[in-house]
Amino acid sequence: MNKKRTELQVSAIRSGTVIDHIPSENTFRVFRILNLEHAKEQVYFGTNLASIKLGKKGIIKISGKFFEAEEINKISLVAPQATLIEINEYEVSKKGPIMMPDYVENIVKCSNPKCVTNNQAVPTKFNIIKDHHGRMKLACQYCEKTMAQEEIWFV
Amino acid sequence: MTHLENRSLVSITDYTKEEIIRVLDIAEDFEKNQRQKILTNHVIASLFFEPSTRTRLSFESAVQYLGGSIIGFASAGTSSVKKGESLKDTILTVSNYSDLIVMRNPLDGSARFASEVSPVPIINAGDGANQHPTQCLLDLYSIRKTQGSLENLQIALVGDLKYGRTVHSLVQALSLFNATFHLVSPESLKLPSGVKKWIKDAGLDYHQYTELSDVVPFADIIYMTRIQGERFPDPLEYEKVKNSYVLENFMLSNSKENLRILHPLPRVNEISEDVDANPKAYYFQQAKNGVYVRQALIAAILGLKE
């Protein structure tokens, strides 16, 4: 019952995409990564909603828009536990976790101040790899330095 | 099959084992016959945005021995960079005037970026603290020449293993040749875990030491590097360790016959001058080998040597 009430805090959409289980503090980062500030479609969102899984969560609903996997997977950098739901005629047509991409372009800044991307007009490119402890790392394709998730700054 | 023609060299990992061997074979040919005028119709640009002695002069020497022409600058102060020109614009402009660009730039990753925007191939002559692949190739050439092979060697790397870019590239390259690594450094300048991972991923072993004398009896190669005092957060710690990493001639008395001492140069005091006369000292020949290797790279990338 609780779950139902939480979902109703943000209007239902007829068809489109729902991104659920976003950590509250990153709701607006997801907005930016998906460039929703400039969206032409109707966008509904809520943040600081009660969540059994996360304590507090954000949710975004975009009416009439579906994303390519490549595009949506970028948000896994800030919302690794997010759920992607596609809606058709008020019914869930697809639901699943966001997958971690193996490459991101021009989303994240390089943490190395001497990297060419921080000193010239060069869009950043990172490969997403795992270190020997299995932790996610971003490897800059230019300066070849790796950085941890907590060092991520968005462009 | 190797395809070096028209490809930039940014990082040593851009080359496969076969491609590395191919470059060394061509360099060997240039050592036997250095004055091959195969570059007479070519112009090479040499863009050094920061100062360099060995690398710049040996590239320029390589071009001259091949009979080519060279254009460029030896510091950013004498180029349009001073007027605020972007790296991209400099590269696009200079690529109109040359067949190949040799570039040193203080920014990490600048060579990769240049290779993406340039219509002519780029040879990275050092991008900040990141990569210096031609130094790595001349190190490999020197090791192969003195040991007869690159396979199965006992390699001792000594000094600043944390920040030394030549050490990191050499580990990556020698991991292709079944080396065993003996890592000699102060605690605070140990090889970074990411570089150790290369060794482990190649299924190879490394051993760590704090005393240089521990590795002398069994090493085939001792690769010395400079320890810079400014790398230490505590000057007292530097004072304590600085003399532990100085190689002196008497220390070589129980070393193997085939041992050779390498150093990327410049040396400050980490190899005592009394080592220079020892036949096992190889660092000046090593610098000479840089010319053959750079001749080989230029010739291969321009498709003048198959």
Overall description:
With 155 residues, chain A is mostly beta strands. Chain A has two domains: 96 residues, Aspartate carbamoyltransferase regulatory subunit, N-terminal domain (Alpha-Beta Plaits); 52 residues, Aspartate carbamoyltransferase regulatory subunit, C-terminal domain (SH3 type barrels). Helices cover 12% and strands 39% of the residues of chain A. In chain A, the strands form three sheets. A five-stranded antiparallel sheet of chain A has the order 2-3-1-4-5, with helices on one face. The longest helix of chain A is centred in the N-terminal third of the chain and has 7 residues. The N and C termini of chain A lie far apart (40 Å). The model of chain A has no long low-confidence stretch (mean pLDDT 88). Chain B folds into two domains: 132 residues, Rossmann fold (3-Layer(aba) Sandwich); 154 residues, 3-Layer(aba) Sandwich (Rossmann fold), CATH 3.40.50. The radius of gyration of chain B is 19 Å and the shape is globular. In chain B, the strands form two sheets. Chain B has a five-stranded parallel sheet, with helices on one face. Chain B is built from nine helices and nine strands. In chain B, 34% of the residues lie in helices and 14% in strands. The model of chain B has no long low-confidence stretch (mean pLDDT 94). In chain B, α3 packs across α4. In chain B, β8, α8 and β9 form a beta-alpha-beta unit. Chain B is α/β, with parallel strands linked by helices and 306 residues long. At the A-B interface, loops of A face α4 and α7 of B.
